[in-house]
Amino acid sequence: MAQNTRTVPAGTPTEVTQNHVKGGVGESTLRPDGTLKVTGEFAYSSDMWHEDMLWGQILRSTVAHAEIVSIDTSEALAMDGVYAVLTHEDLPAAKNYGMEFQDTPVLAYGKVRHHGEPVALVAADHPETARRAAAKIVVEYRELPLITDEASATAPDAVLVHENRDDHHSGHVPHPNIVHRQPIIRGDAAEAAKRADVIVKGEYTFGMQDQAFLGPESGLAVPAEDGGVDLYVATQWLHSDLKQIAPCLGLPEDKVRMTMAGVGGAFGGREDISMQILASILALRTGKPVKMVYNRYESFFGHVHRHPAKLYYEHGATRDGKLTHMKCKIVLDGGAYASSTASVVGNAASLSVGPYVIDDVEIEAIGLYSNNPPCGAMRGFGAVQACFAYEAQMDKLAAKLGMDPVELRQLNAMEQGTIMPTGQLVDSPAPVAELLRRVKARPMPPERQWESSEGSDVRALPGGLSNTTHGEGVVRGVGYAVGIKNVGFSEGFDDYSTAKIRMEVINGEPVATVHTAAAEVGQGGVTIHAQIARTELGVQQVTIHPADTQVGSAGSTSAGRQTYMTGGAIKNSCEIVREKVLEIGRRKFGSYHPAWATAELLLEGGKVVTDGGEALATIADVLEDEAVETEEVWRHRPTQAFDLVTGQGNGHVQYAFAAHRAVVEVDTELGLVKVIELAVAQDVGKAVNPLSVIGQIQGGTTQGLGVAVMEEIIVDPKTAKVRNPSFTDYLIPTILDTPTIPVDYLELADPNAPYGVRGIGEAPTLSSTPAVLAAIRAATGLELNRTPVRPEHLTGTGPA
Amino acid sequence: MDFLRPASWEEALAAKAEHPTAVPIAGGTDVMVEINFDHRRPEYLLDLNRIGELGEWEVGQDTVRLGASVPYTKIMENLRTELPGLALASHTVASPQIRNRGGVGGNLGTASPAGDAHPALLAADCEVEVESVRGSRRIPIDDFYTGVKRNALAPDELIRAVHIKKADGPQQYSKVGTRNAMVIAVCAFGLALHPETRTVRTGIGSAAPTPVRATAAEEFLNAALEEGGFWDNGKIITPSVAKQFADLCSAACNPIDDVRGTASYRRHAVGIMARRTLTWTWESYRGGAASTKGSVA
User: Fold this and answer.
1) Residue of B92, B262, B269 lying closest to A670 (CB–CB)
2) What pLDDT digit, counting tens, does each position of A69-114 carry?
3) ipTM of the complex, rounded to two decimals
4) Chain A residues with CB inside 8 Å of B265's CB?
5) Domain boundaries, chain A
6) Could you tell me if B184 and B137 lie in one domain?
7) How many other C-beta atoms are found inside a 10 Å radius of the C-beta of residue B17?
């Protein structure tokens, strides 16, 4: 399909010592779960079963904002097969949880704050019985005024979504309905604006995207004899869950034993708690194992979404295209509960300038509390919304200057040594201009590919097999975009991972076991962890222990951080194990050969070898019956919080960059779009698994395409209710919507990162969307200030 | 919920007579979605899958008798010449898996305005063969759709087959969805030229409470074609005629705003599809090919 290329500039220190084992760092080892997933045999969290288990079912609010007047559970309790019907009154301990703000009720009490909030809970011996019992619970609501946007949230008489806030941001925000506000001031934007020959302003809207993972929220809680609970669940971060679950159960953390169950996609949507606490409460209450599985409809209410946003931008430039200043205000709607809104605000603010050098900026980002669905983490995390807006601005500016849009970007592109608006030095490669050059230099896909001697092949046209055009009204457009994303957890967060490595001899062969709590959500840790152990320990056989809470935290599988962080932790622990193995070798065999004392020793191909390549002993002979094991915590370099007034601070760990060129064909009469090609260039630092790298980049690109032309959760502004909670009406790209995605990746090592890696999963999601929008603008001549763009926007037939 | 499994058509009719609320199920591509979402909890499901004849078709002199359960895949594979409009419509139904299971009987039974087959059936012209223990009758397609998701069936009747006129001229079908596959119609349009009767028939989907024909547009076009001697001289249809036809098709819509699209867009898109499908079919007619240019057979 796509022609992918890999570029390693000469002299970059990315090569890893060659080992004599297969499947080490840099190889495209295949996923052990790949075939199982494709053939439908992989056990996802929804496939678990336990003898004598019950099924849990949530009753969710039918209104967005209301006082709960009464809850009558009597009819539900009276049903045969029902074991428990619980409301907030039955909660055993803490009534609220949350990753950063403990603002989310386990079950609503007092009031509900969004459509679909959990209000009551049922356990029954059959899922259908549980559903019917939940339907028999009678909840009386007294509706309250709705907060649905910035104006209604910050009005002087606005109803407070959360009264009596007492969190780490409540002291500095201008209004209690604002979760967090992050300004960034650098230079003097007002003064710099005077030097501008050209100024462009724009107001942009970013729709609410859903992660749309295919495996719905699900898990199994099994009560244990010691009064604790064993919980099997698909999540992105076991230890963050644990920290939130235990207080709500009134149990110490060691009585809540969590094991990762098969994850069917995440993209940020599993970073928050879903059914974990509720299933555990039911299990402890009934003394029976309890399984919970959301159906597709419920899943749309069961996790946070990407923050919809309003973005107001002003850019200035001199006549020759040098950016003078930027002012922006970004309003992110966090919905009813904070989730990770504060961090999304920090990201949006600190990355709002894009990958450009602008010395004078005035930036403000705020996150709202509202009665809309809660929003939180999703691939790209605040940087996505900003990129959509600043890239539209770059095109507007280029048009106004009469410049080529790529040249304008290249002229202002940041590079290693640039100072970010936060004052942070970009201290590793930032090949922004080069990435743009690469996507621009690619040959264009041929025009009018639908034409054949047999007539028009509709599969190659907008509308596809729906047969809406045979070429009429079809116009091609080309657009470019580039973005910047941070990698890892920022703003002073103590971000670490833990790896436990064991090395022993089994049946005469050295075997390494890698035990971490890292969530495999499809990103490829399952191959990469073994690759690193093979490279570092020189053993062929590596066992990946299931992820659980019996080992220290790996942190979240998000923010593009796991290869860097858990990869780094594994590398570090392996180095310690290797040293221990060598010590044993020196003790046993040191007297036989002087090299044991004098040479640099390595583990390669199951042997201890000198740096000169001389084998001294097999690992099997060194270890015999002894096992070597270590569990170590590993951290990236520390970051700082952003100043609450100036936004200054070394807030980020690492930056990632990707550029896209989109080629689209638009049926300008019907407003239907076919994306023909989405070419990507990205710096990945080091491709630990090249096949995974390409998969991540193509996946991120496709998710960006989705929010460009179809993906949006539509919330009725009059009721704050979700109107399309299904895959019938929340559309995600099918294979027929997915274009050729040629990937050109660079490997410019980050000297601070293990093997030089750079987080790769998020950056392609950023620039994909604005590139597609730019191409549609080029084809239609329309301004298009919102995404996703729908047929009615392209045909002047009104918004829905 | 009781699951009734008649072994024969006669048994099915008896079961339906005994349990008029029973919901017939064949491919299950509509019914199972409704049940899974708990939108519907029928007392009885009447499984028609053991009745082999419902999956069969016969090509007659003038019509095709299409069994109610003939899956869309079979229509695409076997009836492209006889039923070109319906074959094109079948291509737009959901995914390959759904096309292997779903059939026209289900579309008619559900009678959703968004059913993909309706515009093609209206344009081709057909009769729906329905039967009960009381006897058999044929309902002209023009009388079949009676309201939103309602049809002319009596509670004890089952759909047995559809008698669809074999194409005597070019037919076309277009559907707008907001992605390139697996999508419910925002709106759809079917058009069939009938040179034998020198008439044109249309069908509009998802742009009114029921599938409808644009009768005023048809009458206008029939008159314009007759007047200009177009059927005989095979001239290109003038843009003004095509435009007026398109405008009248738009005017035949009575759409709503919903999450899938605006009313205004639906009217607009139906007009565009009407003009394009008229151009395509007329070009085929002039070229002498009663074919479906644009398909990917």
Assistant:
1) B269
2) 999 999 999 999 999 999 999 999 999 999 999 999 999 999 999 9
3) 0.95
4) 671, 791-792, 795, 797-798
5) 15-42+496-635, 45-144+216-263+270-302, 305-490+641-795
6) no
7) 16
